[in-house]
Structure formats: C-alpha cells, structure tokens
Amino acid sequence: MNNTVPNTTAITEQDKLPIKIILVEKDDKAVVNFLKKFGEKIHVKVMNSPESCLEYLKNTYPPDAIVISRSSGGLKFLEMIRAEAWTRTLPVVITSDHITHGLLKEIIEKGADDLYPSDFSSGDLITRLDYFIKRRHYKAMQQTKASILDVKIPFWKRFIDVSTTGLALLLLSPLLIIVAILIKLDSKGPVIYLSKRVGAGYKIFSIYKFRTMRTDADQLIKNMGSLNMYTKNTDTKQITGLCETCTGLGSCQQQLYLDGEIVCEKMYLSEKKEKVAFMKFQNDPRITRLGKFLRNSSIDELPQLFNIFLGDMSLVGNRPLPLYEAEKLTTDEYIERFAGPGGLTGLWQVTKRGKGKKDMTEEERIQLDIEYARNFSFKYDMKIFFMTFPALLQSENV
Q1: Which end of the chain has fewer beta carbons closer than 10 Å to its terminal beta carbon, N or C?
Q2: Superfamily (CATH) of domain 19-148
Q3: Cα–Cα separations (whole angstroms), residue 218 to 170, 195, 215, 235
Q4: pTM here?
Q5: pLDDT, tens digit, for every residue of 270-297?
C-alpha cells in the first residue's frame, strides 16, 4: 500500500500523545522483533488471537491502530471488525511474509488501512500511525461541525413564532404602511432593504428591513474600516506589499494572484487575520435623516416579522450575520454560534447594548452567541424576550 503521508498539519513533539497499538501476533519471535523495533516509540498491547482482541476492544477505549499478521487471521479479523459500527473506522495494519498485488487488492477491498512486510523492512510505520491519528481527529471535527450545523427548531419555538408574528403583522399593518410612505418621501430608493444573512445551521437567506441608509451604502463601507467600533488596535504602518521575509530577499517568494494582481500570500493572510468579524459604526454617515429615528426606535427591524413568520429566523436567537461577517466565524472555535436559532433579538442585545454600554468587544459578543446556542430553552427565551423592551430605546447611536 502507498505509504506516502498526505499533507496534514504537523504535530510537534510536545503536542504528541503516546501512540497506542494493539499487536495481534501468534509468533513469539515476531512479537519480540516488533517490540525491539518500535517498543520505545509506542505503547503496545499484545494479543494472541483476533477473538481476544475483539473482546478486549468491547471493554476498553479504542487504540490508535491495530497491527495484525495475516497468519494470525488478519483477513478474517478485518471482516469482523468492519462489520461493527463502533470499530468500522478503527485503523488496521496487516503484516505478511509475502506481499503481492493480489493480497494488496484483497486487503483494500476488506477495508485495511495499510500493508507491511512482517519484519517492517520497508515503509515508515510511525509516520503512518501519526497520520491515522490526524485523520481520525479531522473526521471527528467534521462530524462535530455537521452535527452543530444540523439545527432543529423545537415545536414550542416555532409555534410561538408563527402565532405572535401573525398577530403582530395584523396589528402593526397601519404603522408599516405609514413608515413605508415616509421612507419614500425622505429619500430616493426602495422602501425595503434586502440583505443576505447567515442564520441557524449556516442557512443563507434574505432578511427584510426598512431602508435606513443611502442607496450607495454598500459601496461606501469599503472606505469606512477606521470607523468600525470593533476595529482592533493594530499598527497602521504603511504596507509595502511584501512580508518581512520577502522584503529582505527583494522579491516575493510566495505569490498569490488576487483580483488580477500579484500579491504576497503571507502578507495577504496576515492582513486577513487582523480583520474583525463584526462591522458597526457610531454616527454612521450613510444613514438617512428618517433612518436615524427608525434605527433608534428599532422600527426598521419590523419587516423581519415576515422572516420569522416564514421560518427564516425566530423571535429570540443569535442575530443572523451578513456573509462577510459569518465567513470569519467558521473556525472550530466559533462555529458553535451557528448552532443556535437565528433571532430578531438575542442575548447580546439585551445585555450591554440595551444598557447603552459601548465596551462590548467582538469576542464578548461571540461568546454570548455561543452561550445562547448551548443553553436556549423556553424559559431562557422568555427571559430574553421581556428584557428586550427596555433595550429597544437604546442610548448608543449605532
């Protein structure tokens, strides 16, 4: 079998844990030779039969891999271990005195992960075992992300959303009509602003809001980075286009083609890392005269009642984010904030924002979102909902 290790993130010696192996081998001489060759590098549990190995696996935490000789019933063992859901992904290495293309094909079909000569005269077993550990960790993280993004909205939550928003839309219809007329009289442009947002389970949808900004607001935001309330305190030195290493060598050693231009990839990744996830401005120059009132009174949010009624989001939950914000929160550390329902109001809105404080950091806001995703319940939702009313007339002009 090909012993080339895929390009994975390196594990430092400090980060490594002992590699735990079960060796299934009837030949005592082969066991001794294996321990002489690898005994100081890995933890080995020796078993003398496939049956005893299976029984041991039922009562203990799975090892990092199993090494079993063909002469000890390795191929039959493969069939048994791959038939059980709890051992289906456990790495299995087969050893044989004679390696042929036919044997290689057979063990691949039966689900083996590697094939080595009995004396391990070729191939790097330790390197491959490192790879198996990384592969298992990667698959576990992928499964975790998949489960996180499979968000199920409870019946009680959906029932409350439909019943309350249906009644609210009926009662507020005169106000909605009046606001729509005032927006038309105040400035040119559509009454409703559609914005792509990312909600629960990273679902992308169009959110409805009364327009409070100029029609060219999206173009103006590109030049407003310095006004962002969440901007990090970074050194504003002039960027030369090259990282420190490339500058010393006089030319870029790691070129990246971006928007028709050649840039230094290291510099690009460094700048991207410094960008903040959230965008919010004080005294935003893009907001219209009527827009300031609509925002401060939160009337601009009322059309989102249609989003809630249609099931795009909920009354209470984590605020659905614009695409450019959401894409920065897909790391293992932050992805959990999308495991909670998206909402019109949420935990962070009724904590610091509702009290008029201006010291909420980007990290604090993310952690509040994660806290809600982990703990939301009927009681928690009701608490946030009733705390929302004092927060509606917020004191910060954002």
Answers
A1: C
A2: Response regulator (3.40.50.2300)
A3: 32, 10, 8, 26
A4: 0.52
A5: 655 555 555 555 566 678 889 889 988 8
